[in-house]
Structure prediction request, 616 residues.
Amino acid sequence: MNRIPLRKRLLVRLLVTSVLIAVCSVAATAWLAVATTTSALREEQGQALADDMEILAELSGYAATHSDWTAVKPVVRALSAKTGRRIALTTTDRTPLADSASRGASLPPRSAATVDPLNTDTYTESGAQLSGVDPRVVGPYRLTSEERTALDRMAAEQRACYTRFGFDVTLTHTPGGRPVLTDDDGPVKSSDGAAECAAATIDHPMPTEQKAFDALQNSAEGCFTREGYPHAFGEGWDSGAPVYLARVTGGAGMTPAMTPKFGQAVGDKTLRALQKCLDTARIEQLDPYVAPAAELFLGGGDSPVTPRWNMSPANKTKVIGTAGLVLALTVAVSAVVATRLVRPLRALTEAAQQPLDSHARVPVTTRDETGILAEAFNDLAERREKLEGLRKALVADVAHELRSPLTNIRGWLEVTRDGLVEPDAELLGALHEEAVLLQRVIDDLRDLAAADAGTLQLHREPVPADELLAQVAAAHSVAARTAGVTLRTETDTTSWLDADPVRLRQALGNLVANAVRHTPEGGTVTLTARRSGTDVVLAVADTGTGITAEDLPYVFERFWRAEKSRSRRTGGSGLGLSIVRNLVAAHGGTATAESTPGTGSVFTLTLPAAPAPADV
Prediction:
């Protein structure tokens, strides 16, 4: 084990970090204790904070409703006169925009806040800064005067209806101009109260809102595609869903009726990824309507000197004594905790330094981060051991696959050279068959290597599924007739794929060749294509011998055969189905197999569908 320098040891770094944290905590505690000794100081600080938040909220509102800072100077001067604070506004690179102080006055060393309504919400909760878009950033969602008039008329009718049934509701308006009916429990849903009140509901989107959200959805489609959900939204809107869009758009006039309905079920992790796509697209959509982010600097008004407090000698002694006690206790506790933390890490280090072929494991003694790391280490060692076994098996299989045809070729060439056999047409044909078998194994291995390396070339183009099946059936019709097998195709509709036709013919050809090979005389092999939602499902079904349930999970493994004694010449290279799986995966699809022994097998390829070309 290499000796680690003292300053780089985890134990030392943990101790130093703990000491720094303790010092900072004690200093902060002492400062807070002194700063809160008088109620006057607390009130002054509270008022200053309230003024600061008022200034920030006012300027954020200006930025939310203006595309630049051109006319902000009167607003800054009015706020400065109201609060008695010096207010300076600059760009993020300190270029002045507006300043209530005289020209040439230096800025405070640090900005008090960043005015950015696209990332900070100072409107929803008074006196607080929330993450998210300020609801006052309405942008393209702002209703026209005609739409506001129509909604106000509907809101008045709905309010009057609720009043007749004894509901006390209040009419307010969102920043976008949309009327909202509220009671003591919040916004009133159209389903509340009597059924008659729902006739004049104001929850439906207006054309301006619909147009803006359609643009938002189109902007997010690229991100949805990268997340693996190119059509994340279905057609229409789900008026019964939670107010999802209202949350996504920060309440900019949206309603429950504008909640997008997902076209497919997604989990929480995917939902967060799709919401992030919407958030990013929304910020891009609203960016042209808001002023650029700016830095806000606040000063103490006309007084050049900030009041200071003084600490008495007795208070200093108390603070220093308390700080020393806390520091000593922190060091002792940190030493014990750090020693326990380092112990499993040392075990991991020793296991990692063992010879590679030992595949050492470490005991999992805790359930914290080090325990998780130990489990991950053991899992990695187990996977590496399995991969090593697979590598050895693959090398052995490749050697066996190549040795058989090479041995045959060499043997016949040697007896021919010695004059024991005449090089007639039959012998040359046999040698050619062996060379073709050898070339097929090499080509299959090359395709698999390209797929593993991610360099498999695909030349995509619009491919009609029915023509693809017809071409594959034609290519294998002679072999099927020779084997006495009926080969047919079935398609329900004309489905299109954005794919490499050569590679798909190769994948389907491998499946058809296998099906013909394992179907007895008089049997049938059927190629089908059908549309299933956003996918095209291609299937090759046979009436052959079938595959047992024990063997079915391994049919796509390399060099695997259900009949271990079957010859390489009649059984193929053992790589065909593995190539099928890799070719389909390269197209973004999946390959599965189902089989019943004695009845037959069905191999299914599920691939993303593509729209038909415009000229079709």
About this structure: Confidence is low (pLDDT under 50) at residues 38-42, 235-264, 302-309, 564-571. The chain has four domains: 38-137+290-296, 140-289, 369-448, 458-610. The domain at 369-448 is CATH 1.10.287.130 (Helix Hairpins). The longest strand covers residues 600-610.
